[in-house]
């Protein structure tokens, strides 16, 4: 019931989803960029409800405090320690491998601030768990969400990252430094 309401609100707000819908895909890492607004969380809920998919998310552990942690866990959140060296990639690979079906989304910038380059942990999570990456672009100005076809990490990480950067570069109204500062293929 709540999902149908969220999907309707998403539609009424003028948002639309473009690109192939990975319905039936059992596991994937969803890479959402650019992460530029607190509203991205609500857009993500709208995407999840519209697609009818259970997509969890990795988020900074500070969101999972004593008064709001229950809510973010209930919404499918997994807390991430960002300030110290952890074995997050291996932990996520183990989590994915322990599930029959799991979709996890994350913002590879690790912040809403502009960054020079993306963090690459998502790539090694997908590669380690042998699951595809779904690239997701949010455009608040155009109220659209663009999905890529599943990208299966190959043997050439440089080629895979070029594909990723080119996808985000093609979205047009994205002006993040990490897109502008990477070579196009």
UniProtKB/TrEMBL annotation:
Pfam family, one: Acyltransferase
TM regions (residue ranges): none
GO MF, one annotated term: 1-acylglycerol-3-phosphate O-acyltransferase activity
GO biological process, alphabetically ordered: phosphatidic acid biosynthetic process
Alphabetized UniProt keyword annotations: Acyltransferase, Transferase
Pathway(s) annotated for this protein in UniProt: Lipid metabolism
Keyword Nucleotide-binding: no
Superkingdom classification of source: Bacteria
Residue stretches making up the Phospholipid/glycerol acyltransferase domain: 29-141
Annotated SMART domains: PlsC
Protein name: 1-acyl-sn-glycerol-3-phosphate acyltransferase
């Amino acid at each position: 019931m709540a999902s149908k309401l969220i999907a309707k609100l998403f539609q009424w707000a003028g948002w639309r989803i473009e690109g192939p819908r990975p319905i039936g895909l059992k596991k994937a890492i969803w890479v959402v960029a650019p992460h530029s607004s607190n509203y991205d969380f609500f857009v993500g809920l709208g995407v999840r409800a519209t697609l009818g998919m259970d997509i969890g998310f990795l988020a900074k552990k500070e969101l999972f405090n004593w008064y709001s942690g229950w809510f973010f866990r209930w919404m499918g959140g997994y807390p991430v320690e960002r300030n110290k060296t952890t074995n997050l990639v291996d932990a996520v690979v183990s989590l994915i491998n322990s599930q029959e079906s799991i979709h996890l989304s994350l913002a590879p910038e690790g912040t809403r601030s502009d960054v020079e380059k993306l963090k690459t942990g998502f790539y090694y999570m997908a590669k380690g768990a042998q699951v595809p990456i779904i690239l997701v672009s949010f455009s608040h100005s155009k109220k659209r969400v663009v999905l890529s076809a599943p990208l299966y990490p190959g043997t050439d990480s440089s080629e895979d990252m070029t594909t990723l950067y080119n996808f985000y570069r093609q979205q047009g109204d994205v002006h993040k430094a990490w897109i502008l500062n990477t070579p196009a293929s």
